[in-house]
Design a protein that fits this description.
five-stranded parallel β-sheet, about 300 residues, alpha/beta, 11 helices, globular, about 15% strand, about 40% helix
């Protein structure tokens, strides 16, 4: 597997064969994790720094766990108590990190393009763990792995991504990956939460939740990203749930074996009903978390090997 760069900044730069290779390797790590075994030789002697400028539970913890299972020395930098909170610029932070000679740098930032900027300034391999409203590549990879494990393929599936599309980096990365792998992607939500011109990505747009879910193989709910909204985009959370919240009645219009997904954190009673989220026969939300560790192990593995080849 040879990536176009030594970084993973987005799905957009990946060829479908790269995506398949990531998923195949992640599948092997998923099986290894379930067996209770580890491969601590892969990243032995390497240093992984998690640099999160935004709050995170699942992503940061899974990168930490992935790094430790592969034998890396893992450091979690707390931005709230670091020099960044004292006014240090992102470029000064990059210079500091470079002086530490870390090998792998996982970055989450509220500004789109921040990980790409750091990638230009540091010697470490940079992994985008979510930048603004731009991309979240490892989330798309873990979603794809979860789907493939249940459906056997991504090609030809109808996948409905519902909710706040406009502010979601998860939606963008998933759209890029799923379209590249041959899925039929629908985006479903109110006009205020659907970006103008999104049809250019190759998706179908629905403003009626029931029409958007009809005969879908996968239904992916997204949370309302109120922290990125300027206000007035929805009348109220209650009204949003009435028209766009995923409940049993709306899900019944999808295929009988349709899977329910959510990248988390969930707002129960806003974008998804608890009955649907906790349905063990349909919901794979917990499995998404499990696959997150496997995917991030695969990403760290591949980028470390890429760095060795380029050294």
């Amino acid at each position: 597997m040879r990536l176009p760069t030594r970084h993973l900044l987005g799905i957009e730069t990946l060829h479908p064969r790269d995506i398949s290779a990531f998923l195949d390797l992640a599948e092997s790590y998923a099986l290894l994790n379930r067996s209770g075994k580890t491969r601590r030789d892969v990243l032995r002697g390497r240093t992984l720094i998690n640099l999160f400028f935004e709050d995170s539970t699942r992503t940061r913890t899974s990168f930490e766990l992935a790094g430790k299972r592969l034998g890396a020395d893992v450091i979690n930098m707390s931005v709230s108590t670091s020099s960044v909170s004292k006014g240090e610029t992102l470029l000064d932070t990059a210079a500091t990190l470079n002086a530490m000679n870390c090998d792998l740098l996982v970055v989450r930032h509220k500004a789109s393009g921040a990980p790409a900027l750091l990638a230009q300034k540091v010697d470490a391999a940079v992994i985008n763990a979510g930048d603004g409203m731009h991309e979240h590549p490892t989330q798309a990879l873990l979603d794809a792995l979860t789907i493939r494990r249940h459906k056997g393929t991504l090609e030809g599936l109808t996948i409905a991504i519902c909710g706040d599309i406009a502010h979601s980096r998860v939606a963008r990365s998933n759209i890029l990956l799923l379209i590249a792998m041959g899925s039929q992607v629908r985006v479903v939500g109110p006009p205020t939460l659907i970006p103008s011109g999104i049809e250019q990505f190759g998706v179908s747009v629905f403003h009626d939740m029931r029409e958007g879910l009809r005969d879908a193989d996968i239904v992916m709910a997204l949370r309302l990203q109120t922290e990125r909204m300027s206000g007035g985009l929805i009348p109220s959370a209650r009204e949003f749930f009435t028209f766009y919240g995923l409940d049993a009645a709306k899900l019944a219009l999808a295929k009988p074996d349709a899977l329910v997904m959510h990248p988390g954190p969930m707002n129960r009673g806003v974008e998804i009903d608890s009955q649907v989220a906790d349905d063990v026969t349909r919901s794979v939300i917990r499995e998404q978390v499990e696959m997150g560790v496997a995917v991030r192990m695969a990403v760290l593995d591949v980028l470390a090997r890429t760095a060795l080849r380029n050294a």
